[in-house]
Write a structure and sequence with these properties.
CATH class of the largest domain: Alpha Beta
Largest sheet: 9 strands, mixed
CATH superfamily of the largest domain: Class II aldolase/adducin N-terminal domain
Strand order of the largest sheet: 2-5-4-3-1-6-9-8-7
Distance between the termini: 36 Å
Radius of gyration: 19 Å
Number of domains: 2
Number of strands: 9
Helix content: 40-55%
């Protein structure tokens, strides 16, 4: 259980969820070694007094719109499984200064040489988009859901509509809980502006972004909702691969059955 003091109650509740979800991700083998990253928008949850007491600033080239943002972020090269018991070492709550030229650490970041995740640009663009468009989504999680990653190597990945239909048809819950489907995003190197832009474009219309031959990302009102999108989407991929490995192409739900689910949303 997270028992850190001198943090706002809402922030503590989110940190409890971070530890819980990190445990799920590790048990599912979706965050091998230092892979995966998590962020949560905490802007507005800290008092002005707390922000006046910020310490050393670390230079970083942020977009101007990020000035004043407060984010929980996991660390570059850190093991996410350590979020369960050593969160203060492998994650931090950062405050971006008013000129968007540096950040300060409000909490955590105690591991020597701590730096925010290499995917910070992608996370930040998502949070800024969610803020401007009042989506209510505050949390972002990126991991390597095994079966989704496998399918990103398959030719089906190149046809996004067919890809989503193949997963939706496997059971009603896939269509019900991932109604806007998966964005099949072409390969781009991790930590790049290109990947950040591709990710944001995918999230404008889909529930999950699947990075080709890499991993997947989702956002939600809280970390559990973001995790659920990945979990349910990956269940569809796992069912499909299980059918194929058993030697048959699954019949799946009919178009009429899928339409009936869509009408109930």
């Amino acid at each position: 259980m997270v028992t850190y003091k001198k943090l706002p109650g809402e922030v503590l509740a989110h940190l409890e969820s971070v530890a819980e979800i990190a445990g799920y991700l590790w048990n599912k083998e979706w965050i091998e070694k230092s892979s995966g990253n998590i962020s949560i928008d905490f802007t507005g949850l800290f008092s002005a007094t707390a922000l006046k007491a910020v310490g050393e600033e670390f230079p970083y080239e942020f977009p101007k719109e990020a000035a004043g943002k407060i984010l929980f972020v996991t660390g570059s090269g850190c093991h996410l499984r350590h979020l369960v018991y050593k969160a203060e070492e492998v994650s931090a709550i950062i405050f971006i200064n008013e000129t968007a030229t540096a950040y300060s650490i409000l909490w955590g970041g105690k591991k020597a040489g701590f730096k925010p995740t290499s995917e910070l640009r992608a996370h930040l663009k998502i949070h800024l988009f969610n803020e401007v468009n009042n989506t209510g989504r505050k949390a972002v999680v990126h991991a390597h859901p095994t079966e989704l990653v496998v399918l990103s190597h398959h030719k089906l990945f190149k046809d996004e509509a067919a890809f989503n239909h193949a997963l939706w048809k496997m059971c009603p819950e896939i269509k019900l809980y991932v109604p806007h489907g998966i964005s099949c995003t072409n390969y781009a190197r991790y930590g790049t502006e290109t990947l950040a832009d591709l990710t944001l474009a995918g999230l404008k219309t889909n529930d999950v972004v699947l990075w080709e031959k890499h991993g997947a990302l989702a956002t939600g009102a809280d970390l559990e909702e973001a995790f659920d999108y990945l979990d349910v989407a990956n269940k569809g991929a796992r069912l499909l691969l299980l059918a194929w490995s058993s030697g048959f192409d699954p019949e799946g739900l009919s178009p009429e059955q899928l339409d009936e689910i869509s009408r109930s949303l």
